[in-house]
From TrEMBL:
Family the entry assigns: Belongs to the complex I LYR family.
Gene coding for it: Ndufb9
Protein name: NADH dehydrogenase [ubiquinone] 1 beta subcomplex subunit 9
Organism: Aceria tosichella (wheat curl mite)
Bilayer topology annotation: Peripheral membrane protein
Localization per Swiss-Prot or TrEMBL: Mitochondrion inner membrane
Domain Complex 1 LYR protein: 21-80
Record's keyword terms, sorted: Acetylation, Electron transport, Membrane, Mitochondrion, Mitochondrion inner membrane, Phosphoprotein, Respiratory chain, Transport, Ubiquinone
GO cellular component: mitochondrial inner membrane
Amino acid sequence: MNVTRKGASNYLTTDLVSHTRKVCSLYKRLLRNIDFSEDDFYEARFQKLQLRAEFDKHKDIKDARVAKALLEKGEKHFEENGHPYYVSGIEIHPYSKDGIAYGRCEESPDYVMDYYHPLDKARYPYYFAKREEMKKEYLNLWKKKMG
């Protein structure tokens, strides 16, 4: 059931989350937590299999109170025993300082384009004409300000 009106922003969307979705979300978070905390692939795989067996053991429970209590117990276990980076919500994005792609693609400084060969500049005449015009404007502005 969507409680927002049509055309409202996504951050205003408030859907009712079913118990099944909460359990799936907990399962995925616990799997990712194992990835965060375990370095050895085979040990991580074994822990994931144990986790799956634990969830499968309780999948046929029909009593909503018992299922809700198990879900709360799992959430509490995740909060207490989760990896500190993962539980706190710190995500390491690929291009951030500690990410795997940090510094992979260095951006060239602007002055490198001044050293382009004239034949290369001839391929993009409008761009380089506009660039020269902007450089002159910038120099005039700098002279006026610092002058």
